[in-house]
Amino acid sequence: MSSTRYQSLLSPIKVGNIWLKNRLVSCTSLPHYIQGNERFPADSMIEHMLRRAKGGAGIVTCTGFDDPAKVPPAEDIVHFPIIDQFDTRCQNYLSQMIEGLHYYDAKANVSIMVQPGPGVDVVDGDLPAFLTPPGSPPIHNRQITREELEDLARQYAEQALLFKKIGFDMCSIHFAYRGPLGAKFLSAITNTRTDEFGGPIENRARFPLMVYKAIREACGPDFLIETLVSGEDGMPGGTTIDDICKFAKMCEGYVDIMQLRAPDLDPNHPINYCLEETPWLKYADAVKQSGAKITVETVAGFTNLDTCERAISEGKADLIGAARAWISNPNFGRLAYEGKGEDVVPCLRCNKCHVATIHGPYLSVCSVNPRIGIEHRLDVLESPAQPGMRIAVIGGGPAGMQSAVTLAKRGFDVTLFEKEDTLGGTMNLADKGPHKEKITRFVETMKAEVERAGVKVLLGKAPSIDEVKGWCDAN
After folding, report:
1. Which neighbouring-strand residues pair with 389?
2. Measured in Å, how far apart are the chain's first and last C-alpha atoms?
3. Can you tell me whether residue 374 is helix, strand or coil?
4. How far apart are CA 197 and CA 212, in angstroms?
5. Alpha-helical regions (H) of 329-436
6. Residue of 269, 351, 456, 451 whose CA lies nearest to 31
7. Residue spans of the chain under pLDDT 50
8. Any bridge partners for residue 257, and if so which?
9. What pLDDT does 129 receive?
10. What is the DSSP string of 199-254?
11. ∠ at Cα 176 (174, 182), nearest 5°?
């Protein structure tokens, strides 16, 4: 039986003709390079996605679907691997992943992005210099035609229908950040056309609506459509939140879920220096207050279950989308069902799961979840504890605490030695700067985990090797 602490967050909701078991959405996101250049979901990706479903997500969004023929391997986005859904062998892997998601009563969502060929854009113009290869002459784009837009909408519908046949319950259409073509049409900054597709929001919305309608006609009412849009352009003369509220009403009957995002890509992923915990909730709230008959989803910064509960209970959103929360805590939803929000390991917003290191290679890593990247190998990496085996862990910093907890959970008798009078190591200094409160929360969470795991802690002890051996012999 679930706790009543997060009753709004965990309440079922009917979206279109489909019931969702709760309001928790796992957004399109993977730790970078969690798999190689395979054009199918590898075991590492499947295991990661299934853990999100097992952890309580009501919707799990699978990522990286485009026409592989149009996307050279060198252009793969590191945390959105390109999957060849047209290959029947790949479809088998997708089907197995979907069955796993359904086993945990999660809806399988698929992200679709169809782009025009090179040299085509919303309007005539030169490609920005920062997107032009060094030493190359300026690249000029021509304005896309209505016939080409209709063909793109048809391709969206064909892919959505294929995914429905494979077993997906819904699709996600990314039209945010003035990036994908649909987003460029919606934006008053990038869309300066003077024909039927330019000008007021009613015209700028024509192509996105063309895509949604084509998918709805192809897939029917029992296949949900989610769209991602920016809440505004965030600059003078750009699209406003009032425009997006009007757009939401235009989407009624075609779009089931509207996910409201930041004006630009980077701000949508709050870092430690962001003063607001959930800076873009205001967009979801505005669409909710507009009266648009559409399910509203909010994202960005929702790593605290109490914050998620307030957003739903106060009527500011219908669904909570999260990415890093499911990376740092694959059991994020399960902790909500257990009413244990204080046990959520805080995401430090370090961004290591999504951004390359400055001097080293990309690695699938999370600062607070050591299982990331090796989840599919844990069954062979972990061996059972030996009866009566005692282990000493020297040093009570984050690595020492995590090691002690992991060993204790596997059945070892663990004692943790720390030379200072408190656990935390150098993180007790790292949390002193402004906006570092999450580090403090992380240390306190780990201390509580050490206690729950039954680890013996000896503070003020910096034992030598001989002393450790003597301790082992004495026990």
Report:
1. none
2. 41
3. coil
4. 16
5. 332-337, 378-381, 398-409, 427-430
6. 351
7. 73-76
8. 226, 295
9. 58
10. SSHHHHTHHHHHHHHHHHHHH-TTSEEEEEEES---STTS--HHHHHHHHHHTTTT
11. 70
Distance in angstroms (rounded) separating the CA atoms of residues 107 and 53: 9
Maximum Cα interatomic distance, the chain, rounded to a whole number of Å:
85
Handedness of CA 304, 308, 310, 311 (dihedral sign): positive
Dihedral sign computed on CA atoms, order 72, 73, 76, 81: positive
What are the phi and psi torsion angles at 154 (to 5°)?
A: -60, -40
What is the sign, positive or negative, of the torsion defined by CA atoms of 304, 349, 439, 420? Answer: positive
pLDDT at 75: 47
**Looking at this protein, which amino acid is placed at residue 251?**
C
- List Cβ neighbours of 194 (8 Å cut-off, separation of 6 or more): none
Residue 429 structure tokens: 């200094």
CA distance 335 to 332: 5
Give residue 231's Cα distance to chain centre. 18
Number of CB atoms found within 10 A of residue 124's CB: 12
Residues 6 or more apart in contact with residue 426 via CB below 8 angstroms: 397
Per-residue pLDDT at 125: 84
* Amino acid identity at 443: V
Contact 90, 62 (CB under 8 A): no
Give the amino acid at 57.
Answer: A
